[in-house]
Specification:
The protein is an alpha+beta fold and 643 residues long. Strands 1-4-5-6-7-8-9-10 form an eight-stranded mixed sheet, covered by helices on one side. It has a six-stranded mixed sheet with strand order 11-12-13-14-15-16, with helices on one face.
């Protein structure tokens, strides 16, 4: 997951109540699912040690970076779901609001509800081994303070990053000092490939992913029954200081066993599942199984709505089968980086089998239908889980959904083209929209017909039709209002937290326009500093404006004085290539990489670095200036629901 948005106060957006069709749809679900089964509530509250009366976390400047209080004002443990919230998602939100410090088993504790993810503390002989230190330094520190208050002052002797998503490493500086890591007092373990993927996910496509994360996580939505309820995996993402300390120890193969401070850990690598680099951990002394984010109490994403590379559902199921084979007959407790644990071998084994089988079924039946000639949208409409998975709470679609995951499986195998020649070279959305409006007798006729479909509860069709009207006529206030109304009702009905947020953020932007406040950027300072030069130049290649660079030829060297290495950059044929030093460069820029990092972070400029002597140019300074002029800066607040 990636999020570079600085939370700001959203202007109040006018909202509307649930329609009769939405109320009926939500009421129907109440009759279909086993709401009388309260075992999850027992598990989510089991082992509570302490929780503060309120939970609002601020940074040193007083800015709120995490706040459960707005949620707790309207999501209470026994309250029935409002008409504007899917009752299954409401149940999930009630469970996710069980926050505080919890005892999992002997010497294993979790702090839950302090961020999107959990932070876990395993007690060794002299200190804590911490698994997944949340997304923000401020939330991680607050969790550590809660542990210290209740369990005594102990140092952190090791940190384990289970995988390469930011909500599992970003808070590390809130619990350890990098000086202690460099001195060998604290070890940091991570799976092979962690650093590469942790950095790359937030860089190459980071701007677009972060913009879409605003939709996926409901960052700007008001916290009420008509707005943000939760994100499925947790309430939402924190908005504090994202940090990164590189690992000291890399786990390179499954079965690798490490003992730290008297605690034995056996690692299972699971690359290409929920993250490109991920690992589960077995604690033999407690028969305790840490599942990272490979199993949670929801169906996960095969393709996350913020954007990412498509995951492999078949491989995911295979690794879970391996987990069962390794420890399924021994595990007496299972815990993970989101949601609450499960206890008892029979219960853990049943849970793991159903988690495995939901991804196996999703994969196999999507491919089955694909081989019958069905396309992604057709598969999504037809596929259905068997009752034993459909009625199982931990495989419900609070985060990923069967509909969009099945389309992701199709995409993984078949790509964007569905085989229909009409879709091989389609018109742009705006061109298509204008012809739709023309063929349907103008936007007035479309809006009139769509209102009738809205009254009949046909919101998906209203969204399809009004999307065309809005893209053909972006200033058509009637079409935008009706599209917003349709999105809103679809959000009220959504069981997935991200689906609800996407629909309601879409309605918000149609009614209020695209936000324009300053954002924090896609990559944190630590991520940029940890970026190797090769990845930096890959990113600069993406920023190069190809049409503007056409016809230009440049050859530059970047001499990183602190690394003792020179990198060559060539611009030709509208592209930028990089590699070894250029023999006869137009110009050479000499500077420490740390100085280039400060330029990337906006803390200084190239001109200031040269003027101060932190950087120097030999050769033709105009060549470097021309190169810099060819690099685009990406706008964060690009349009999504309007052209």
């Amino acid at each position: 997951m990636a999020s570079g948005v600085a939370l700001a106060q959203s202007p109040p957006a006018p909202t509307k109540p649930a329609t009769a069709a939405t109320r009926a749809a939500n009421q129907k679900l109440l009759q279909q699912l086993p709401f009388a089964d309260r075992r999850d509530f027992d598990d989510a509250t089991r082992g509570l040690v302490d929780r503060p009366a309120t939970l609002t976390i601020r940074d040193p400047n007083g800015k709120i970076v995490w706040n459960l209080e707005p949620y707790r004002q309207f999501i209470t443990p026994d309250a029935p779901a409002p008409d504007t919230v899917n009752p299954s998602l409401w149940r999930n939100a009630q469970l996710n609001l069980q926050y505080g410090l919890f005892r999992v088993t002997d010497d294993i504790y979790q702090v839950r509800g302090y961020d999107l993810a959990n932070i876990s503390f395993i007690r060794g002989k002299t200190g804590w081994i911490v698994f997944d230190p949340l997304q923000s330094a401020e939330t991680a520190k607050a969790a550590y303070d809660l542990v210290t208050k209740n369990l005594g002052k102990l140092p952190v002797v090791a940190v384990v990053y289970s995988h390469s998503h930011v909500d599992h490493y970003g808070g590390v500086r809130g619990i350890v000092d990098e000086a202690d890591v460099k001195a060998g007092k604290v070890k940091i373990f991570a799976p092979e490939g962690f650093l590469e993927h942790a950095i790359s996910e937030n860089v190459i496509a980071g701007n677009a992913m972060s913009r879409r994360a605003v939709f996926m996580y409901g960052t700007l939505l008001p916290r009420n029954a008509q707005g943000g309820v939760n994100a499925g995996l947790g309430q939402t993402t924190s908005q504090g200081t994202v940090t990164l300390i590189p690992p000291t120890d890399t786990i390179a193969k499954s079965g690798e066993t490490v003992t730290v401070d008297g605690v034995t850990m056996v690692f299972q690598l699971t690359p290409g599942t929920e993250a490109p680099a991920e690992m589960n951990t077995w604690f033999p002394q407690w028969n305790a199984l840490w599942m990272a984010e490979n199993t949670t109490n929801t169906m996960h994403n095969i393709l996350t709505l913020r954007g990412a590379q498509v995951r492999d559902a078949q491989r995911w199921a295979s690794y879970l089968d391996e987990t069962i084979g390794l420890w399924g007959d021994k595990a007496t407790v299972k815990f993970q980086s989101h949601h609450w644990p499960k206890w008892g071998n029979a219960e853990v084994l049943d849970y793991l089998r159903k988690q495995r089988d939901v991804y196996k079924y999703l994969h196999d039946q999507s491919v089955n239908l694909m081989n019958h000639g069905e396309t992604g949208p057709e598969i999504a409409e037809e596929i259905a889980l068997p009752p034993e998975l459909e009625n199982n709470w931990p495989t419900r679609g609070y985060y990923g959904t069967l509909r969009h995951n099945s389309r992701a499986v199709y995409q993984r195998y078949m790509g964007w083209y569905d085989g229909n020649p009409a879709n091989l070279n389609p018109l742009t959305p705006v061109e298509v929209a204008k012809k739709y409006v023309e063929y349907m007798g103008g936007s007035g006729a479309m809006v009139s017909r769509a209102r009738k479909d809205f009254d009949a509860g046909n919101y998906r069709w209203v969204a399809e039709a009004m999307k065309q009207a809005v893209f053909a006529e972006p200033d058509n206030t009637q079409a935008k209002a009706l599209l917003a109304d349709a999105f809103e009702q679809m959000g009220y009905q959504a069981e997935s937290g991200p689906w609800r947020s996407v629909y309601l953020q879409g309605a918000f932007e149609l009614r209020n326009g695209v936000p324009n406040f300053k954002t924090a950027g896609a990559a944190s300072a630590d991520v940029i500093r940890a970026m190797p030069p090769e990845m930096l130049f890959d990113y600069l290649s993406v920023r190069l404006n190809g049409p503007r660079a056409a016809g230009k030829k440049l050859a530059l060297n970047f001499d990183f004085s602190d690394l003792g290495k020179v990198y060559g950059v060539r611009v030709e044929n509208g592209v930028m290539n990089h590699g070894g030093a250029v023999q006869r460069p137009d110009a050479t820029l000499k500077l420490p990489k740390a100085t280039l990092d400060t330029i990337q972070l906006g803390q200084t400029t190239m001109e200031k670095a040269i003027a101060s002597g932190d950087a120097s140019i030999s050769g033709d300074p105009a060549a470097l200036k021309q190169f810099m002029s060819l690099l685009d800066s990406f706008p964060f607040w690009f349009n999504i629901v309007t052209p």
